[in-house]
Design goal:
Oligomer: heterodimer
Mean pLDDT of chain B: 94
Number of domains of chain B: 1
Largest sheet of chain A: none
Shape of chain A: globular
Helix content of chain B: 10-25%
Largest sheet of chain B: 4 strands, antiparallel
Number of strands of chain B: 6
Number of helices of chain B: 2
Number of strands of chain A: 0
CATH topology of chain A: Ammonium transporter fold
Structural class of chain A: mainly alpha
Low-confidence stretches of chain A: none
Strand content of chain B: 35-45%
Structural class of chain B: alpha+beta
Order of helices and strands of chain B: EHEEEEHE
Number of domains of chain A: 1
Strand content of chain A: under 5%
CATH architecture of chain A: Orthogonal Bundle
Mean pLDDT of chain A: 96
CATH class of chain A: Mainly Alpha
Radius of gyration of chain A: 21 Å
């Protein structure tokens, strides 16, 4: 196999960029929770890096990208478990993949890491630690690996059907968003929600986390071209264009609705744009990216209020931002997709309704699968060991109750001379 | 002896402190406090959800003065802390029964 030095260097770099997103997400979420729970939030994100990294090399990479079992496009086999047989090409990709399979495996590992980490925003401030880890392990095997196989592997059935997902609108964001909503349903609202004030304790952290996410996302999206080429450049440009548009759209909605644009709104809009352009960045042009960004910023800004109507405590709006944003991006490929950039033509470029139909079908299937299996997993763990912390632990704060630490010692023990 | 307690706007602390120095006040204690009066609080908006923040940050000054200095101290604090807008705060006086300077053991007005 002939590898490209440039392609390999870019995907290795992208891998590190994508890893950095998970700590960034920790700060994005951590700033939004109350100060007594911030370490528990960061801990969930960091432990996901530990757990999923090991799981990926020993099992889930092979389940997602290994040789298809039975030719149905449902799940890969265990041929690559423990990173065995890595000298063989990645099944289905053929000779146009000019990076070593090991590079592909570690790049995809970082996607497998951040996806369950996204779920932690829905269930913030109330999950027991051990049962959370158990959920992440089971979810990675039963939900993430098969969905990645269906969509990302060329052998997967949704991929073969022609559904497009450049960097993970369905596999990452709809998958995690639906799971977050399901798990929040199972575990119930935070004590006192929605009557009690649960304002963010550190908005600067949220903005810092957003910056890290935006930076890392170039690896996520442009890296998904799997080469250092024009496609990567288009994905990069679209990522930034949509994110900029979404940031502005979200604060425009706030200005009209509440009178003042907020920094949390700017951060949330940016993330909504990043989410929506994720599936579409390799298939749309500048017009598509701009419209997708505006749509994501404006719609998600309104969608985050829906949880109050549904009485569902999706604490940090994983549903409103990732689920809704992922759907917007994945579905709009069916309209703005253009073969001039990559993939099939959508409605606007003479492709008819075919692509729109495939995109919608893929969205519905992944959403339904992830929501229902995540709900069942949550219920199972809740029945067997209990998913939720005690009332005392929740009131005291998860930082001391679960981890024997306090984030801030302002004027306390640590600062005493 | 009297205890003068003033609740003032945080940005007025510097003015009040400087004004008290000019009338030779010997010392005071400052703490950051929160509370509400007629000013009430304000509204914050996070992702479209409104939160009423009804406790406003204020600065509290405590100083013990002799009976004859009380009026001057009150006037000084009042003048220095006033902006004329709602939320300027309050100042009140309480009688102090006894006082000791810990280092020397002096008591009463000598300890001020």
């Amino acid at each position: 196999m002939q590898f490209s030095v440039g392609d390999t260097a870019w995907v290795l770099t992208s891998t590190a960029l994508v890893l950095f997103m998970t700590p960034g997400l920790g700060f994005f979420y951590g700033g939004m929770v109350r100060s007594k729970h911030v370490l528990a939030m960061l801990m969930q994100n960091y432990v996901v890096i530990g757990v999923v990294s090991l799981l990926w090399v020993w099992a889930t990479y092979s389940l997602a990208f290994g040789p298809d079992v039975g030719g149905l496009g449902i799940i890969g086999g265990l041929r690559f478990a423990g990173m065995a047989h890595m000298s063989q090409p990645v099944p289905g990709f053929g000779s146009h993949l000019r990076i070593p399979p090991t590079v592909f495996a570690i790049f995809q590992m970082m996607f497998a890491v951040i996806t369950p980490a996204l779920i932690t925003g829905s269930t913030a401030d109330r999950l027991r630690f051990g049962p959370f880890v158990a959920f992440v392990i089971l979810w990675s095997v039963i939900v993430y690996a098969p969905v990645a196989h269906w969509v990302f592997s060329p052998l997967g059935w949704l991929n073969r059907m022609g559904a497009e997902d450049f960097a993970g609108g369905t596999v990452v964001h709809i998958d995690a968003g639906a799971a977050g909503l399901a798990l929040a349903t199972v575990v119930g609202p935070r004590r006192g929600w929605p009557k009690q004030t649960m304002a963010p304790h550190n908005v600067p952290f949220v903005l810092l986390g957003t910056g890290i996410l935006w930076f890392g996302w170039f690896g996520f999206n442009a890296g998904s071209a799997l080469g250092a080429n024009t496609l990567a450049a288009n994905a990069f440009l679209n990522t930034n264009t949509a994110t900029a548009a979404a940031l502005l759209a979200w604060i425009a909605v706030e200005k009209i609705r509440n009178g003042k644009p907020t920094t949390l709104g700017a951060a949330s809009g940016a993330v909504a744009g990043l989410v929506a352009i994720t599936p579409s960045c390799g298939y749309v042009n500048t017009l598509g990216a701009t419209v997708i960004g505006i749509a994501a910023g404006a719609v998600c800004a309104i969608a985050v209020s829906a949880k109050f109507r549904f009485r569902l405590d999706d604490a940090l709006d994983v549903g409103g931002v990732h689920f809704v944003g992922g759907i917007i991006g994945a579905v709009l490929i069916g309209i703005f997709g253009t073969s001039a950039v990559g993939g099939a033509n959508g409605l606007l470029y003479g492709g008819g309704l075919g692509l729109l139909g495939k995109q919608t079908l893929a969205v519905v299937i992944v959403a339904v699968y992830s929501f229902s299996v995540s709900w069942l997993l949550g219920k199972l763990i809740d029945k067997v060991v209990g998913l939720r912390v005690t009332e005392d632990a929740e009131l005291e704060g998860l930082d001391t109750a679960l981890h024997a630490e306090t984030a801030y010692e302002l004027g306390g023990r640590g600062s005493r001379a | 002896m009297k205890l003068v307690t003033a609740i003032v706007k945080p940005f007025k602390l510097e003015d009040v402190k400087e004004a008290l120095k000019t009338i030779d006040v010997q010392g005071l204690t400052v703490s950051e406090v929160q509370g509400f009066g007629r000013q009430r609080g304000h509204t914050e908006v996070y992702r479209g959800a409104e939160y009423i923040v009804d406790l406003v940050p204020k600065v509290r000054l405590d100083l013990v003065v002799s009976d004859e200095d009380v009026d001057l101290v009150l006037e000084t604090v009042e003048a220095a802390a006033r902006t004329g807008k709602i939320g300027d705060g309050k100042v009140w006086v309480t009688a102090v029964e006894s006082m000791v300077r810990i280092r020397t053991g002096e008591t009463g007005p000598d300890a001020i």
